[in-house]
Amino acid sequence: MERIAERWADTLGRELNLDEPQREMLAYGLKILFSLVYSYSLTFFLAYLFGVWQLALVVIVTNSLLRSVSGGAHSSSPYICGIFGALLTSAIALLARNVSNISLIALFILIAVALYIVIRWVPAGNPKRPPPTPGKRRFFKMASTFLIVGWGFIFGLWKWNIICIPVQYVAASIFSIGWQLFTLTPVGYWSLGKLDAFFMKALRYNNICKGGE
Amino acid sequence: MLKSSKKVILGLIAAALTVLASAGVASACLYVYYEPEMPKAYQK
After folding, report:
1. At what angle do helices B2-26 and A20-50 cross, to 10 degrees?
2. Cβ of residue B32 closer than 8 Å to a chain A Cβ
3. pTM for the structure as a whole
4. CA-based angle A178:A75:A128, to the nearest 5?
5. Under an 8 A CB cutoff, do A64 and B31 touch?
6. I want to staple A144 with a disulfide (CB 3.0 to 4.6 A). Which of A41, A47, A70, A165 is the partner?
7. Rounded CA gap, B33 and A192, in Å?
8. In this structure, is residue A213 part of a structural domain?
9. What ipTM does this complex have?
């Protein structure tokens, strides 16, 4: 996937007479595009097979929004990312499908834990990015807090019947936020590292990927 | 004519990819569980 992105960026760069930093930017954009298309296609395909693609969409949107401002643990290969993301999203959607009631106490506990995690660990460290500046750190913390509080507000409106959303969709967003918050913690990093190593071993064993490519 | 149209299309593709890459650079993390290496120019 990364090699194809580099090759396409080379071709585009040559055709448009771009310099090296511009070519690198195109390669980065292509890698993001391929990663998104591959991961989301696999996720929707699997969720469609289980009959939960609408819930999977809620999981993806909630998770992506919070993840883009909070950071989180990563897998070492785009292939593992796709497989893991598809399995996890479908599992959360299947779990949410069976929920029939959500208590207000659960909401308060989740928001309290969420705010603690955001204050303590956002933005979560990422080895493939330079550490954010103090200004950017503050921005990510504030944006994450805003998202959590805003989401809690919408949940409150739903709980008091001011807006009408099926309970399964609300449950899908709760589980999605819960999982995303977990990936911000040291235990989350450790667990994802172990899962990543397991998937890596399985893929290498089947000659699907070599050396993190 | 054909050559200039090709250049325009490629330019539009490059612009769209640059917007996507900029969004990736500006966010705390990508929306999926894999993160490609960031371009050197943006690592400072």
Report:
1. 70
2. yes
3. 0.81
4. 105
5. yes
6. A70
7. 10
8. no
9. 0.82
Q: Which of A16, A35, A122 sits opposite B36 (nearest CB)?
A: A35
Specify which residues B34 forms β-bridges with: A75
pLDDT digits (tens, 9 = 90+) for A77-106: 777 778 888 898 999 999 999 888 888 888
Number of folded domains that form chain A: 1
Mean residue pLDDT of chain A comes to 84
Q: Containing domain of residue A60, as a range?
A: 50-205
A-B contacts (CB, under 8 Å):
127
Compute the distance between CA of residue A139 and CA of residue A123 in angstroms, rounded to an integer. 9
pLDDT digits (tens, 9 = 90+) for A9-52: 888 888 888 888 888 888 888 988 888 888 889 999 999 999 99
Q: How far is CA A92 from the centre of its chain?
A: 13
Cis ω before A21 (30° cut-off from 0): no
Query: Residue B34: phi, psi to the nearest 5?
Result: -130, 140
